[in-house]
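tool_call: predict_structure(chain=1)
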Amino acid sequence: MPFTKEQFIDVFVKYNTSVFPIQAILILLACIAIVFSIKRFSFSNIYISIIFAFYWLWIGIVYHLFFFARINKAAYLFGILYIIQGILFFYSGVIKDRLSFLFKPDKYGILGFIFILYGLIIYPLLNHLLGHSYPASPTFGLPCPTTIFTFGLLMWTEKIIPKYILIIPLIWSIIGFFAALNYGIYADFGLLVTGLTAFTLLIIRDKIRSVSSSAGTEPIESK
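tool_result:
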């Protein structure tokens, strides 16, 4: 790694103290997205997609380019990937209307809820218990917990989602896990588990839906 653990942790400190209290706003937006997925309104899908686009653009521009790039030049590449992902969310969910969110109490909905709970609540609690307390910890709105939350809410989609939406979050699940593990952010075990599990299940779910749609029958998983 091109930087020390102390430098890595110091990035979180500088970010958290510089952008405070934006963390509370980012969590509030997550709660709004959850509510709009459970009690859906006519504008819910667009609002949720805009929230996702904002998250990924925020991380790409603010965190990666303005903070992480100070100690790691690879952050410029990471920033570009996050910016692309933000654009993809806006394109797919707002312009093309291909993202539709609705919580259902099936296996996808329940597992998605677990991922959401982990990203929003369990992740920061684990970091605190493991000695990474605020501001020296990755808060919600930073790459790893936000990626976990993203996968969780994508588990609540009811349409076949564009597969390009999943690629960059999966890549970060792998990169972020190994990088954070190297510096003792053990809560990111959940990042890798979430990324691999959600990616696999969403591919399988949408394959079943595609086959069922072609056959003119309702997929069993949607019942």
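agent: The chain has one domain: 5-210. Proceeding to next step.
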